[in-house]
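S.,

Sequence below, as promised.
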Amino acid sequence: MQNFKNKLAQILSDKIKAAYDADIPAAEIGQMFEFPPEPHMGDIAFPCFKLSKTLRRSPQQIAESLNDGLNVEGAEKTEVVSGYLNVFIDDNYTVNGMLASIVEKGDEFGKLDVGTGKTMCIDYSSPNMAKRFHIGHLGTTAIGNSIKRIHEFSGYNCVGINHLGDWGTQYGRLAVAYSKWGSREEVERLGVKELERIYQKFYIEAEKDPTLNDEARAAFTKMENGDEELLNIWRWFKEISLKEFMKTYDLLGISFESYSGESFYNDKMDAVVKELDDKGLLVESEGAKIVPLEDYKMPPCIILKSDGSTIYATRDITAAIYRKNTYNFDKCIYVTDAGQSLHFAQFFKVIGLMGYDWEDQLIHVPYGKVSIAGQKLATRAGNAVLLTDLFDEAIRRVREVIEEKNPDCEDKDEIARKVGVGAVIFNQLSAGRIKDINFVWDEALNFDGNTGPYVQYTYVRACSVLEKIEAANKPYPETVTDDEKEMIKTLSLFPLRVRQALDDYEPSVISRYMLDVSHAFNRFYHNCPISKADDNIKALRLDICRATKSVLGNALWLIGMEKTEKI
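The prediction came back faster than expected:
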């Protein structure tokens, strides 16, 4: 479909130039194409409404003029309906052009080269140490991992950065909490769970005695000034936290090129603060040092608090400069919840005010908040669903289904892990990332309908056909059925969907496409028998299965789900 679309776009661009003396690039026309939902509406449609004002003609007139004498290799016929130019692709091009190309490219089909020679840094997951992963961390982790993979698939050199939250006043609170209510033995025995307990206790006690907050601020200031006793405790807490985090990353198949957290930039911030001051950007306000941003309709960006300690913005500005100098990125992506949008807009603007011409290479990718039964998450309140519990429950439910439906299945545990974890990831990525998610157990682990297990089962079905039925090395038939053509057309859209997901930083484009492929394949599977078909038809249908396996396999990888060839 990509090749046909490009050829058609160039032909229409040339016809518009000849008929209206207007330059509308083929690339721009290509962005306007639509893919009709019903076969009688054509295989690809060009809506002429957007051109009406520019060309000073009605959409219907424009469509009719473009259709006059239109000749596109691979087109069976064209027609004009209500301002749309509809193009129908012939069967020969469908099978010998589109399907043959997918089969020939195999697992390479859908890959793009738009990122060749470019570097993308992506800052995602980035949990705070001394806390276990909960459902609120799933968004940045799953979305970030998928966006990274989509960029890799599109040719980019990708640098995944886990900007650990390992610095700040909260570690002053933790140090105070440990000194008052903790012990080395209990931390060694219970790990992060014990750190969470004493952290929550700090907040409870601080409600009664607000002076604890002053102690915490003083402790963190000592840490920033190099207090070795406090820093040794902090390093120990960090080591314990990383061990806990790695359990989740290993389960999800996620790795990072850098684990440099906020603390990494502690000795690099003074130079940035001095640079801001030397460039006349810092202003004192109530004892704090700020960069005023009222000219850009934003509150000031605080660089140093009144006690001289740094803040998130100081570290993020320093990190951005370090990453540009280290990786020379073409874009640097930050995946966080939408509540931090102002913070990123502020520090991006400060980067620009410092005279750096790469402000527009900094990209914030926000996503919606997660609540549980309508309640906002808060770790210190202890109401967050832990990811380990969520994954364990998903895996347990899948194993029960396998035990019931296929008790003789080998590798039940491995399959249950892949399908259970995949179900949770798909649930997170199946809706647009900006939407708020109200987490409900039964919905997240519902394996019926438009779910991850349904997609994985479709992949298994395609693999099973290829394993059981011997290939027929024959030419394709001259005509195809509607189900065969719909399946091939749906598969051919994969590169376009990858590009859309790349441009929009939107993994749900891939998730929704996987459902389209799965629905089309299961209709094809039920309506188009394979084993008893004539050799020519069998060859076609087996190649459709082969192409489905390649496309769905790559799509599963793009959103971070593992493949399994048996369920």
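Residues 119-278+311-373 form a domain with the Rossmann fold fold (CATH 3.40.50.620).

Coffee later?
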